[in-house]
TrEMBL record:
E.C. numbers: 6.3.4.19
InterPro entries hit by this protein: Lysidine-tRNA-synth_C (IPR012796), Rossmann-like_a/b/a_fold (IPR014729), TilS/TtcA_N (IPR011063), tRNA_Ile_lys_synt (IPR012094), tRNA_Ile_lys_synt_N (IPR012795)
Reactions accelerated catalytically: cytidine(34) in tRNA(Ile2) + L-lysine + ATP = lysidine(34) in tRNA(Ile2) + AMP + diphosphate + H(+)
Location of this chain's protein in the cell: Cytoplasm
Gene: tilS
Protein name (record): tRNA(Ile)-lysidine synthase
Length: 458
């Protein structure tokens, strides 16, 4: 099957082979988009959709004006409708130009789509782009669902965003352009290897293709397999979710009866349904442990500034945060994620880490039942456990260490899910037997951004 035949089949799969449809073609004048535009013009007239070219002059390179002029002449000669948008230099941000440029382009494509009644926007993304996207996501880490690459088609505005060249390699597109003597422009910024994607494009992907020439097709196969697995997972979660719901609440006993590998996905789906926010399964682990912890039968957990999780009588509900007479300060209660620094004052950041981030970090045995951990200002009645038994009031520690009265209100404590104080930050740790069963060792760390040489006191 020739490249043209494969391309026409890709259009047929997206139901785009119809002269009754209008499609917007994103053309940058690079080889990818010029091949895309040429292939569309080779579709038989009785099947060819109406073509409307959309081009953005980003004013980022000296040749931008030349490219726009070339495309204007190209479309006029072939009686193709053309829309050009100008992203002038005074609109460019000082940072994040690439992301801002992409946002401008897709906003423009959406406007063209709306005014023309087009059913789809087509872009020239190809198999090398897919591989680069996968490698970037692998390097960044995250949940498996976040590893999904570029989709051949996805909803966009009132229609679809379609990538019909996704199965073709960059070299195949270059060979086609050479064979059909297509004019195109090279973007000189693509050679700038200080940019992550360019570094992958110029160095990493070619090396991997040397290891295995089928690398790009393997990436495409992985994408298909991952899409199938995630779709199957979504279907299973949709089946399981009604079995743990009672009206708008989540039945924690029924959740615990699910196979262990399905509990987090079901909790995630339930939360997303009631908060309209997607939280990764990895970040939900502390919330899950809090929810199933039988020692805190009734408690609350902040989710956002306006929503909180409320646990009572074995049920979980998402409710609006109740208004309080006293307005809480933003620093009054902070959820603690493992392996992340949390700024608590202008000069102090604290964190709980699985590996020691500083030489002064304090090892501490942590139980699953401790989660979630919270930072808050100390309160009257807060106590620290001592090594040989007994308790010591936090207030007494601050007095003994001669902390000025004016500074005491700013001192924070780290508490577990039961409200037990584990650490008077910057001053003293609560004692816990390092050999306690089923505990993992974490490190409580404090860093001071202005004062040097500050050490934690035991």
């Amino acid at each position: 099957m020739t490249l043209i035949q494969r391309f026409n089949r890709a259009l047929a799969q997206q139901n785009l082979l119809s002269p009754d449809q209008t499609i917007v073609v994103a053309v940058s004048t690079g080889v990818d988009s010029m091949v895309l535009l040429d292939l569309l013009q080779r579709v038989p007239v009785q099947q060819r959709p109406q073509i409307l070219v959309a081009h953005v002059n980003h004013h980022l390179r000296a040749q931008s004006a030349e490219e726009a002029a070339f495309l204007t002449d190209y479309c006029a000669t072939r009686s193709i409708s053309l829309k050009i948008a100008e992203w002038s230099a005074d609109q460019h941000p000082q940072n994040g130009v690439e992301a801002a440029g992409r946002q401008f382009r897709y906003d423009f494509f959406a406007k063209v789509m709306a005014t023309s009644g087009a059913t789809a926007v087509l872009t020239g993304h190809h198999a090398n782009d897919q591989a680069e996207t996968y490698l970037m996501k692998l390097a960044r880490g995250g949940d498996l669902a976040q590893l999904r690459g570029i989709q051949a088609s996805r909803p966009f505005q009132t229609g679809q965003l379609v990538r019909p060249l996704l199965t073709f390699s960059k070299q195949q597109l270059r060979d086609y352009a050479s064979e059909h003597q297509l004019t195109f422009y090279e973007d000189v910024t693509n050679q700038d290897v200080t940019l992550t994607r360019n570094r992958l494009r110029q160095r990493v992907v070619p090396e991997l293709m040397q290891v295995n020439p089928e690398f790009l097709s393997h990436v495409a196969t992985y994408e298909q397999q991952l899409s199938t697995l995630l779709s199957a997972k979504a279907q299973m979660v949709a089946t399981l979710l009604p079995t743990v719901q009672v009206q708008q609440q989540l039945d924690l006993q029924q959740l615990s009866k699910l196979p262990s590998q399905w509990r987090l996905p079901v909790l995630q789906a339930w939360l997303q349904k009631h908060t309209r926010q997607l939280v990764s399964e990895t970040k939900l682990v502390p919330t899950y442990h809090w929810a199933i912890n039988s020692q805190s039968a009734s408690s609350r957990l902040p989710l956002t500034a306006t929503l909180e999780l409320v646990k009572a009588a074995g049920m979980l509900a998402v409710l609006p945060v109740k208004k309080r007479v006293k307005k809480l300060r933003p620093s009054e209660k902070i959820m603690v994620d493992l392996d992340q620094w949390q700024k608590i004052t202008a000069t102090q950041s604290v964190g709980v880490f699985r590996t020691s981030p500083t030489v002064a970090s304090q090892p501490f045995p942590l139980l699953n039942s401790d989660m979630p951990l919270v930072l808050r200002p100390w309160q009257p009645g807060d106590q620290l456990k001592l090594k040989h038994g007994g308790q010591q009031l936090v207030r007494r520690v601050l007095i003994d260490q001669k902390v000025p009265r004016s500074e005491r209100t700013a001192v924070q404590v780290l508490v577990n899910a039961h409200g037990t104080v584990l650490w008077l930050v910057g001053h003293k740790f609560s004692y816990r037997d390092p050999n306690i069963a089923r505990a993992q060792t974490v490190f409580l760390a404090l860093k001071h951004t202005e004062l040097k040489g500050v050490h934690l006191k035991r």
